[in-house]
Amino acid sequence: MMKLDDLNTAAAADFVALLDGTYEHSPWIAERAAAARPFKSLAALKVALARVVREAGIDEQLGLIRAHPELAGKAAVAGELTAESTNEQQKAGLTACTPEEFARLQKLNADYNARFGWPFILAVRGPRGTGFTRAEIIATFERRLRAHPDVERAECLRQIHRIAEIRLNDKFGVTPALGEQLWDWAAALAAHSETEGFLTCTYATPTHTAVAEQLMAWMRDCGFDEVSRDAVGNVVGVYNGTGDISTQQRLLTGSHYDTVRRAGRFDGRLGIFVPMLVVRELHRAGRRLPFGLEVVGFSEEEGQRFPADFLGSSALVGAFQPAWLEGVDAAGITLRDAMQAAGLPGTVESIQSVKRDPSRYLGFVEVHIEQGPVLDSLDLPLGIVTSINGSRRYTGEIVGLASHAGTTPMGQRRDAAAGVAELILFTEQRAAAVPDVVGTVGMLEVPAGSINVIPGRCRFSLDLRATTDEARDALDADVRAKLEEICQRRGLSFTLQPALAANAAPSDAAWQARWEAAVTELGLPLHRLPSGAGHDAMKLHELLPQAMLFVRGGNGGISHNPLESVTVDDAELAVKTFCLLCQNTADLS
């Protein structure tokens, strides 16, 4: 097996020779990466190789893509693939296609090449490393055939990096066992769903309860000293530290286990599994930290069933609103009744007892899939969160005059939809003018619209976010002022109803620095970025210092979607980073 020291000390030509076969017929990648030695870790080597490709010219990138063979193509049939490609296609079962599958792949190969001019690239061993099924490969082929060429070229390169990562693992004899366990937990937990074929787990349903019970069983297996489900449905596991447990402080961590409808497997749940594995490793080694670890699987964060969100973390910070208990879901069931049906007390007193005493805690840290494309586009497995965006949301309606589309002159129209369209473009331009500020109109409706009628009404939503409250409020003021100006100029009227207001949650400097130190210790470059999504950490921010670690998501960073994905290698790095964070914190105690 290859060793990192062999690569770090080898002559440049030997370095290239040792990495032969990692990237298909492209020794120039290793040649350029040699200058970045010494590499502190295998992960650092992978990042350096990917950086060479990212910084290469488009022609070189296309050359790399075209150096790869088609899946189940002519070269595979003729036995002309490299040993590495032959092994991968055999493991995916592509050498045992049915005649129908083979014909389908040949047609897809031809259509893909005609559209893009290069072969379809897929790391057929997949994020788990055990391989996609032939049906999954064909479905992915069909989906990506519809992509924009620039998007697809970037995805091909990311798939090539994943192929290289698996090949390097083989060369070094490395198995990301922690990441594999995390991935398998995610798959097993996703088997509990309210809908067949897609993952859905909303608050206080039988599925939700089954997930909580499974998490508690796994926590006990990991060696937690205390495992329970609290009055709001949070799953809580405690691993005691050294010394008197009645007075010792704890590090609080975790994320949510509920999901959106048609969800991915890793949103929220990744942040429960990572510290569970840390506790498992500590327990197996017979080790205790100078502080306790408290892992919380928050019962609700997504706001999918009831008109409230962050139910789980709100209870911990004492912000659970008693009025929420009377809120109803789409079936008219109150939150109180749903809680009691799920075996929870459903009383204000029991929920208020869940509030934590901040003096007992060092802080709150959360690991989360990025839910965005930044890390994926930079070929980086981990990122440091600097702040969780503050947001303001509205639902609104512009009212004009419905009139005949053919007989009303353009200069005499009161078109409500045109007014909203102008607002959408302004919001886009205004948000784009300031770093880390975003604005979105996600819902748009012309009630009772008709193809030959000028819209008299148009309903819309506004979602405005920024890393600081000042930037958010400035965007908010400008968008609302523009809405008023548009309506006055066009002879329209409007209503605007606030739907949500959340303050920004900047990361605590000390805890952010601890995440950064842990990532650096793994030999990985630091990349800092804000979180545009809301997280339980933004609620805990009201009570404790908090900081987050992001893990790269696959498939362009998509989330809230069945395509949401994390590789076992990135999951492994997240667990190791959390272990280092705990050790570094212990050294400071």
Automatic annotation (TrEMBL):
InterPro entries: Amidase_Cbmase, Bact_exopeptidase_dim_dom, OHCU_decarboxylase, OHCU_decarboxylase-1, OHCU_decarboxylase_sf, Peptidase_M20. Belongs to the peptidase M20 family. Keywords: Hydrolase, Manganese, Metal-binding, Purine metabolism. Its cofactor is Mn(2+). Residues 8-169 form the Oxo-4-hydroxy-4-carboxy-5-ureidoimidazoline decarboxylase domain. It comes from the Bacteria. Homodimer. One of its GO terms (molecular function) is N-carbamoyl-L-amino-acid hydrolase activity. This is N-carbamoyl-L-amino-acid hydrolase. The keyword Methyltransferase does not apply. Its EC number is 3.5.1.87. It is an enzyme of class 3 (hydrolase).
